């Protein structure tokens, strides 16, 4: 039939051909040509942003600080060696006083660094542990290590009991019992040189192990101030050259000292004692540096700077003492 209106079927078909992007249902679903011609690199991540995210912060090595730590380690080793050498049967009180001062330094440094729950009661218990350990090491007959083990266990239980008093400390005590054990054990470990001075060849073992560990730490820290390369880790301001060189020179110094001491010491036995002391001290010192770097990367509050820098040498000599006792009883005798 004829259609008089101008909007006929042919006009509709022409309009449909001129707008192919509009579907019959009336919804616009076609993608514009401009979107098809968009930049192909738009979805790719910016390479500069990736490089910034993957870049690792390199902690600089401070020369004066490394030299200061080296001097502190050397003075600590000299004090332990001279104190053991000048200790006599009726004249051990000065050495005990020196060791008590070192125990207090260890307690302050490691408590500030590790942040145990209820730091006040924990520190008070550790002071009592230090006094009792020194007293037993000087006065108990026969001199042995077993009383110190009992003191450590009693102090550990007392420190945990003090941490369970307040609810906020009680929630942390379950996860931080290792920290409490490390602090209590380290404080009591400094009484071991007193016990060794009362035993056969014990004084010589204290001197040789203190010299080996002290030279290792002194050389390692001094080398970091001069040539801190290759870096052990970007976040740790230590160089592998100093660590290796310190262990070697610490062993050499202990071997030279063993050649002038009386039997059963020989250069070979002195080298063995010095090597073990140097390796243990170096590993503890490095572990403290890695722990500090981990806290810094985790965003924790930095440790008080004096405690942070004294923690390594103090922990190194604390762990060296049990190894010296074991060598004196199972290797030299």
From TrEMBL:
This is Uncharacterized protein. It comes from Paractinoplanes rishiriensis. Keywords: Membrane, Transmembrane, Transmembrane helix. The chain crosses the membrane at residues 65-85, 91-109, 121-138, 144-165, 177-196, 202-223, 243-265, 271-291, 312-332. Residues 1-56 are annotated as: Disordered. It comes from the Bacteria. Residues 41-56 have a biased composition (Acidic residues).
